[in-house]
Amino acid sequence: GSSLLTGPEGLMAKERENLKRLKCLRRYRQRYGVEALLHRQLKERRMLATDGAAQQAHTTRSSQRCLAFVDDVRCSNQSLPMARHCLTHICQDTNQTLFKPCQGSEEVPCTKPVPVSLAEEPCCPLHLRLPPQMYVPEQGLAVPEELEAAPSELYLSAAELQPSESLPLEFSD
Q1: What mean pLDDT is predicted for residues 64-68?
Q2: Is Nucleus set as a keyword in this record (predicted)?
């Protein structure tokens, strides 16, 4: 804008005042000197703090292990998100409500954790009880007597079904 206002005739006092106000408005929100330096340092600290916190949360999350002990040895599996135990030991956590141990059967007891669902007794796939069979096939098909007593001359033999010279091939099907 300043190149348009300068010309061979020069600037009048009013135009110079307007140009000065325009330049002031362009840098109204900008910081200068010590204020600019402090503001830049604050932004850098904030970036380091947020990046460091996110990276630290990621490293601690990836290194969290299950808190369960098996034969006095700590489990080496990674814990589930937002939990203290892995999938095999999640039922030891008394505060969780998403998993229940499988009830199993009388012959084979099972304690595998199963996600709670709408079923009354959630079971693992090994102990899942299938619903009763909907279709029951009939034991013997009753063939009407009139079909049994049909004469055999109504049926064609395999030799009669073969195409012959008198009957073209396209009509043999």
Answers
A1: 86
A2: yes
Please say whether the beta carbons of 66 and 78 come within 8 A.
Answer: yes
Please report the pLDDT score of residue 55 as a whole number: 61
Give the DSSP letter string of 100-165: EE----SSS----EEE--SSSS---TTSPPPPPPS----SSPPPPHHHHT--GGGSPPHHHHS--S
User: How far is residue 98's CA from residue 94's CA, in Å, rounded to a whole number?
Assistant: 11
- The torsion angles phi and psi of 14, rounded to 5 degrees, stand at -65, -40
Domain boundary assignment for the chain? 11-50, 69-115
Percent of the chain with pLDDT over 90: 5
Query: What's the rounded Cα separation, in Å, for the pair 164 and 173?
Result: 12
Under 8 Å between Cβ of 91 and 98: no
- Backbone angles phi and psi of 74, in degrees to 5: -70, 140
pLDDT for 104-126, tens place per residue? 777 878 888 888 876 777 788 88
- Distance, CA of 84 to CA of 78 (rounded, Å): 9
Structure token pair of residue 143:
């063939």
- With a CB cutoff of 8 Å and minimum separation 6, the contacts of 62 are 78
